[in-house]
Structure formats: structure tokens, C-alpha cells
Amino acid sequence: MTTIHPNQNPKIDDAPPRPGILARMRGNFLAGLIVVVPMALTGWLVWTVTGWIDGWVLPLVPDRYEPKQYIGIELRGLGVVIFLLFTVVVGWLAKGLLGRSLVAFGERLVNRTPVVRSIYGGAKQIVETALSQTEQSFQRAVLVQYPRTGIWAIAFVSTEAKGEVRDKAPDGLRIQSVFLPTTPNPTSGFLLFVPEKDLITLDMSVEDAAKLVISAGLVYPNSKNPTLPPPPDPESPSKSG
Fold it and tell me: Are strands 152-160 and 189-195 parallel, antiparallel or unpaired?
């Protein structure tokens, strides 16, 4: 029988081998991609949109007013600044009595034009919906069975059904207007009218649910334990209050 000296430690399993230089380089490369790619895409998008707006606005500015005539270089983003100032002035004028009268006259004129009125009406409704901050935000994230029973998808409740949709529903059945987004582009999707009893409300916020949809299920609100809801935000007001 083999005895172990009191000061001698028993042999333990060897420590796992350290990753090689190629494995470490691969890990560093992937970590760098996580940092670089979002920054590069954001910068590219801002740069592209700025150039697109400049291409529309600057040709309308007389040459003698362009800084390029005086400093010799073209300032990227000048068209964006001019567009913002022009929009602010138009909004200020539209709030006045004369501005409201001109806008109303212009809309009446547009509404009498067969093709133009459809384009203008649709564009105006889209802009008003996108900029509205009152009733147009999603209320909560839910699970809904789609496209068939037994398959669940994440959706967002926009509001309770109104008008004819509510009136034609069976007596006592509460219908919710639900937006079902697609992955990875949540700006497209389907409008569903679902009974409230068929919806399962999620504890995660609308923002966290949107991240889950965009990432195709890879990014969960609680990264340490996805089976649990996200930890409460210490800065958010308490619901009990």
C-alpha cells in the first residue's frame, strides 16, 4: 500500500492546456469584430445618409452662398444643416394663422388630384405615425400562436381593437391589435387581431423583446440566466408606487 507523506500533495489532474497562438488570435479577432463592425456600420450609414441629403439640398443653394467658393473644400453635412433649418422655419410658419391657411389650401388642392392625393395621403399618414409619441408606442411584448396552434412567436400589442373590428367581434370577446415582426428586420411584419385570452404577456420590455427578434433568438434579456426575466432597472420607478 502506497503511503503519502504529510507534506506531499497527491497528484492532481494536469491543468488543461493553454490555447495556441492561432486560437488566441481567433478569439481576439472575434472580440474585435464585435466592437468594430457596429461602429463601422453606424459610421457608414451616417456618412451615406449625410451625403444623400447633401446631394439633394446643395444643388438648390446658389453657388455664391456655398462655403466651397471661399474655403476651397466641400463641407459634408452642410446640406443636412440647411435642411434642418428649413424644416424648423417651415414648422414655425405652419403654426401661425397664415401658415395653417396655406397648408389647408394646399391639402385641398392636392386632395382634388387623383394620383397625387393617394401618394400624399399615404406619406403623411406614415410620417405622422412614425413621429407620434402618444398612443402609437407598443404597450407590451407577448407570445402568440402563429402561424398555427402549437408554434409561438413574439409580438407586440399596439392597442385594443377599435371601430368595426371591435364591433364585429363576438360578445364579450376582447380583441387586441398585435404587430408580429419578422426576423431580422422588425420593421416589416403582420397585423393580427387576437383575443386577449390567447396572448401570453412577457415580463421582458418591448426593447428587450425587439433585441430578441432582431438577433434571431441569440440575445436574451438576461444573459446570465435566460430562463429568468431581466433584472429590474434600479433607475426605473417602482411599479408598486
Answer: unpaired
Could you read off the pLDDT of 168-194 as tens digits, one per residue? 888 778 999 999 998 888 778 999 999
Task: Please write the tens of the pLDDT for every residue from 9-42.
Answer: 555 555 567 777 888 888 888 888 888 888 898 8
Which residues are CB-neighbours of 74 under 8 A, at least 6 positions away? 68
C-alpha 218/C-alpha 79 separation (Å) is: 39
Strands 189-195, 175-181: pairing kind: antiparallel
Q: Are 200 and 143 in contact (CB under 8 A)?
A: yes
Asked whether the beta carbons of 214 and 156 are under 8 A apart, the reply is no
CA gap 32, 195 in Å, rounded: 46
What is the amino acid identity at position 161?
A
- Any bridge partners for residue 178, and if so which? 157, 192
Which cell numbers in the block locate residue 176? 387586441
Q: What is the pTM of this model?
A: 0.46
Domain ranges for the chain, please list them: 140-214
Number of Cα atoms under 13 Å in the Cβ half of residue 54: 12
Task: Output the CA angle 68-74-76, nearest 5 degrees.
Answer: 135
Amino acid letter, residue 21: I
Residue 52 identity (one-letter amino acid): W
- Strands (DSSP E) along 123-187, which ranges? 140-145, 152-160, 175-181
